[in-house]
Design brief:
By secondary structure, this protein is an alpha/beta fold. It is built from 10 helices and 11 strands. Helix 7 crosses helix 8 and helix 8 runs antiparallel to helix 9.
């Protein structure tokens, strides 16, 4: 799709598909939707940030919230190399002597009234954040120096940033920190919620395997390990593949334990074996 902004033709990005269904933790969903709510014509939506350990489902929550609102979702992956022009508009060579301007997923969401998910935002350097400062306050626009245009946000546009709670990230500058509010903490789910997430992502898995992986995650969390349900999904999936071809009538507890132990060691390392239930 192509739109024209101040005489410049912009080629828009395609929306993303939600990575999965949000299961459990209804309070986090309620807080996110509340932050986006506009309660008066003079009110503005907020720009929340979802904070938690890698793999707890921050991006899934953001996409599920967009789906509940019936909006297109656009995911913008932030990295240490993200430049201001990457966030807004990039020139693309279009033939031997011409350029076309490609709107980023963020800029596309602004123009179409979608939801922009700035994924792992605290991996991004300050210069890139500075280019978004007017978008994150009452002005709600960005400027593209490359294309020489100002892009104003559609009234239905919403933004959320996900941020990993680990050491491999930048500290947000204070003027950005104040604009990315509220902070919504996403913690590890309870065992029954993790089991439901495993069922959602591995609907073809034997219940014995899912419970075995859920027990592993519960034990790891009790010992303050950073293993997440995403790790559990990978262990469960690999366990299933290792067991494939065995007796279709079912697996013994010892077979499940042996396959899960090997899968956990391959996915997370030998240190993960201490949290596996012994059969």
């Amino acid at each position: 799709m192509v739109v024209e902004v101040e005489g410049v033709r912009l080629h828009l990005a395609h929306p993303d598909q939600a990575p999965g269904r949000w299961v459990g933790q209804d309070e986090a969903m309620r807080q996110l939707l509340a932050a986006w709510l506009v309660v008066d014509e003079r009110d503005l939506p907020m720009n929340p940030r979802l904070v938690g350990k890698p793999g707890v489902g921050k991006t899934t929550l953001a996409c599920a919230a967009a789906e509940r609102l019936g909006r297109e979702v656009y995911i913008m992956q932030a990295t240490v190399d993200t430049r201001p022009e990457d966030l807004i508009v990039q020139p693309v060579i279009d033939g031997p002597s011409s350029l076309r301007y490609a709107a980023s997923p963020l800029a596309t969401a602004m123009l179409r009234g979608g939801v922009a998910v700035l994924d792992e935002g605290n991996r991004m350097p300050e210069k890139s954040w500075a280019s978004l400062a007017p978008l994150l306050d009452g002005r709600r626009y960005v400027e593209s120096l490359v294309a020489g245009i100002k892009i104003k946000a559609h009234p239905l546009f919403r933004l959320v940033a996900t941020m990993n709670d680990d050491a491999s990230t930048f500290d947000l500058p204070e003027y950005i920190h104040a604009r990315l509010q509220p902070q919504i903490l996403i913690d590890f789910p309870e065992r029954d919620e993790e089991l439901a997430i495993l069922r959602e992502n591995l609907p073809f898995a034997d219940e014995q395997i899912l419970n075995y992986v859920a027990d592993f995650l519960e034990q790891a969390h009790a010992n303050e390990e950073r293993y997440t349900v995403r790790d559990g999904i990978n262990i469960g999936r690999y366990t299933l593949k290792l067991l494939a071809g065995m007796d279709a009538g079912g697996f013994s507890a010892s077979q499940v334990a042996e396959a899960a132990a090997f899968a956990a060691a391959q996915v997370l390392g030998e240190e993960a074996l201490r949290y596996l239930r012994r059969r």
